[in-house]
Design brief:
- This protein is mainly alpha-helical.
- It has one domain.
- 68% of the residues lie in helices and 0% in strands.
- It has 6 helices and no strands.
Length: 116
């Protein structure tokens, strides 16, 4: 896989976090729109990124998530990672239900970034 910049890596992380429970809730969609507006103040085409995520077999989500967590880490400051963790937490709570899978991926991110 080709290394992604912080913003693209964050998009991949959030898309997987919002999908691991098998449902993409409208509230999660609104949170993702907020992330996109904050990270991409200019028009950007994310169709290729969405295609990658949409066609990724579920059994490869963990590896993909781990890879993009590393990409984000490499291009971010500790403060940016903390802000992202807080945003990710608000994303998985957006539909007022945090599933075991969402929690697992969220904890994986915190562990990889040594934010325990």
């Amino acid at each position: 896989m080709q290394k992604s910049n912080k913003s693209i890596a964050g998009y991949h992380l959030l898309m997987i976090l919002s999908s691991v429970d098998g449902e993409f809730a409208p509230e999660e969609g609104l949170k993702l729109q907020q992330y996109l507006a904050d990270e991409f103040p200019f028009q950007v085409d994310l169709d290729n990124e969405l295609d990658i995520i949409a066609t990724l077999p579920q059994e490869k989500w963990e590896g993909h998530f781990d890879f993009h967590a590393g990409c984000f880490y490499d291009d971010s400051t500790e403060e940016e990672r903390q802000d992202f963790i807080n945003f990710a937490k608000s994303l998985i709570k957006a539909d007022e239900e945090v599933t075991e899978q969402e929690h697992k991926f969220y904890k994986t991110l915190k562990n990889k970034w040594k934010m325990n």
